[in-house]
Design a protein that fits this description.
The complex is a heterodimer of chains A (about 180) and B (about 450). Chain A is of the alpha+beta class and about 180 residues long. In chain A, strand 2, helix 4 and strand 3 form a beta-alpha-beta unit. In chain A, helix 2 packs across helix 3. Chain B is mainly β and about 450 residues long. In chain B, the strands form seven sheets. In chain B, strands 1, 2, 3, 4, 5, 6 and 7 form a seven-stranded mixed sheet that branches. Chain B is elongated, with a radius of gyration of 24 Å. Chain B starts with a helix and ends in a 7-residue tail after the last strand. Classes of the chains: A alpha+beta (about 180), B mainly beta (about 450). Chains A and B meet through helix 1, helix 4 and strand 3 of A and strand 19 of B.
């Protein structure tokens, strides 16, 4: 009898500990998800920063480009829900910087745009970050801040009205407009 | 718009409710109440002017649809009654109760109307078929075009008499439509009828929100080349630009006392944070101060908290903040993209949109983060939830049939129906409070 109830007790305890463990695991999984997410964002933030070597190289390139006739302002593009600058975007910004420095009397509006997949209000905030990423990078390259302003349109003014991956990629952009 | 609002309906209570302690027929909050069977008889033309606009059937069908949408009633086909429609009685002493009790109806709505050149009179009565007694009656005078509003008024009266709670049938929904080629604000009745264009900014307008007294809208407009916040008086049409800081001025929502606005600004460091301003646009306090995007704030009905969206954890999620202590709590953990929080007027739940793959669905969650509940399934992208003032319904936009259109459903996800149709995209619905001036 005693043995039987001991057995029962141990079964109960074992089940309880399992329950406790599983609830613990669930909590740990949630925390982990959050931590990973945080790391991802930190990576994103780095995109705006610029190292000394990068800067020196970019300035040389700008000096070269400024002597050319055919430089122009071009759009830069972003990944989904991201405002960090990839290598291509940085390369374009170097050329844009050369153009703006050659045209010091011109004022430039940097527009931030998103694809249609996000939420309107969140996308306006994201677009603002995109235009600011570009603005900060240009200032780092030596462009005068007084020539630059930003505006975000979120998903309101797509470059391509389509609903495909291709259209979305074209819409996640910063455009440079002469005021 | 103005004409509609200024319209005066004279109304008289026909007789005095016989019993002072009103009987409750339907307990709204009990979990599994059977639907209450009610019959609505066709409205009788009591005058000599022929009913060329089919007002008789319109009055009863608007009331039927209202009661149907509430989800509390089972509507009995009036043709199932043995009563002769050509010779039907409108008063309790002459109704043959057996004709109606055999249909299973426990309540009966009867009414009549007469038309004059520019005037309509409608009277409507609600009877208890089981007790063979009169519950309430109303008489309305107005312009003939107002028969829908008259029907909604009587539906509210029926709702109040049978449940003891206020109905939502006279409420409206503000929303944004691009039908004119530009995004402008429109208003419509909660059932999608009586659509009226409100703004003419010929730019981009977003996120309308109704003031707690129902008299003013607040919204974001790009009219002057920057996303700024405007208010518009709905009675007189006056507009004021109240927030135009450098950078973003977006996503405004009124405090429950109507004196303050919570919104997103990006002026100070180029990223979005949440602020409280007064109605002159002066900053009262800054609620968030971090590198993340903090957007879409909405006030809790007790005014002590806000819910908002932040990507501080790496992806957009819903958070709540106790305003006084600035204590922040993350509410959503499922899914990587949760946005558009809307706090229920009752205060217990928050509705939001969750993105999975390329589509959104509407969910609700309790204010403590428990009780996650998915309301829409497998039907396009469903966004921008907003609560009816009785917390029993949610409106949202969906592209399930092509263009984005406004839908309503009950707060448990049942009874979905499209309330806008046709060309253009209709988004950003915001359900009005009870409109006492209608």
């Amino acid at each position: 009898m005693v043995r039987k109830s001991l057995c029962l007790l141990s079964v109960i305890l074992f089940t309880l500990s399992l329950l406790w463990l599983s609830s613990c695991t669930r909590r740990m999984i949630k925390e982990e998800e959050e931590r990973i997410a945080e790391r991802e964002e930190t990576k994103g933030l780095k995109g705006e920063r610029i190292t000394e070597e990068e800067l020196e190289e970019a300035r040389k390139k700008i000096a070269e480009l400024r002597k050319k006739e055919d430089i122009k302002l071009s759009n830069i593009y972003f990944a989904f829900d991201d405002f960090s600058l990839d290598e291509q975007a940085k390369k374009t910004l170097v050329e844009n910087a050369a153009w703006i420095m050659n045209n010091t009397q011109k004022k430039i509006v940097i527009e931030g745009h998103c694809d249609e997949r996000g939420t309107e209000e969140y996308n306006i905030a994201l677009g603002e970050r995109r235009s600011n990423s570009a603005k900060r990078y240009l200032i780092n390259l030596g462009v005068s801040a007084t020539q630059l302003s930003t505006i975000s349109y979120g998903e309101e003014r797509p470059a391509d009205p389509g609903h495909s991956e291709e259209a979305w990629a074209k819409n996640r952009r910063s455009a440079f407009l002469i005021k | 718009m103005n004409k509609k609002v200024m319209m005066v309906i004279y109304l008289f209570v026909i007789g005095i409710a016989s019993n002072l302690t009103a009987k409750i027929y339907i307990y709204i909050d009990s979990p599994a109440t059977a639907k209450f069977p009610v019959a609505i008889s066709y409205f009788k033309n009591l005058g000599n002017v022929p009913d060329t606009q089919h007002i008789s059937t319109s009055l009863s069908s608007v009331i039927s649809q209202d009661l149907e949408i509430s989800g509390l009633f089972r509507l009995i086909d009036p043709d199932a009654s043995l009563e002769d429609p050509g010779n039907s009685a409108l008063t309790g002493d002459r109704i043959k109760w057996r004709d109606w009790s055999t249909t299973g109806a426990e309540a009966l709505i009867k009414g009549g109307f007469y038309l004059e050149e520019s005037r309509i009179m409608v009277e409507a009565r609600l009877f208890d078929v089981v007790r063979e007694s009169f519950i309430t009656g109303k008489r309305y005078y107005s312009k003939p075009d107002d028969f829908r509003l008259i029907s909604h008024k009587f539906s509210d009266e029926v709702m109040y008499r049978l449940t003891g709670q206020k109905g939502i049938f006279q409420t409206q929904i503000a929303f944004v439509s691009d039908i004119s080629g530009k995004k402008e604000i429109y208003l419509m009745d909660f059932d999608g009828q009586n659509r009226v264009k409100v703004t003419t900014h010929r730019s981009i307008i977003l996120s309308p929100a109704w003031s707690p007294d129902g008299k003013t809208l607040i919204f974001t407009s790009y009219r002057d080349g920057n996303p700024d916040v405007f208010t518009r008086d709905l009675l007189y049409g006056q507009e004021r630009k109240i927030s135009h800081y450098r950078g973003l001025n977006i996503a405004p929502d009124w405090s429950p006392d109507g004196k303050k606005i919570v919104l997103t600004l990006s002026q100070d460091d180029g990223n979005s944070d949440i602020y409280i301003i007064n109605l002159d646009g002066e900053k009262i306090s800054r609620l968030t101060n971090d590198w993340a995007n903090d957007v879409s704030p909405c006030w809790s009905p007790d005014g002590k908290r806000i819910a908002f969206v932040s990507n501080r954890s790496g992806s957009p999620q819903i958070y709540t903040m106790e305003i006084e202590t600035r204590k922040v709590r993350r509410l959503t953990f499922e899914g990587k993209y949760n946005t558009s929080p809307a706090w229920s007027p009752k205060g217990d739940k928050i509705a939001f949109a969750c993105r999975r793959g390329n589509s959104f669905n509407i969910y609700t969650i309790n204010k403590d983060g428990s009780g996650l509940n998915q309301l829409t399934f497998n039907s396009g992208s469903n966004e921008g939830p907003t609560w009816s003032p009785d917390s029993r319904h949610i409106a949202f936009s969906s592209n399930r049939s092509g263009n984005k259109k406004i839908y309503i459903m009950r707060a448990d996800g049942s009874g979905e129906r499209a309330i806008t149709r046709g060309k253009g995209n209709d988004t950003d619905p915001f359900w009005s409070p009870y409109l006492n001036y209608r």
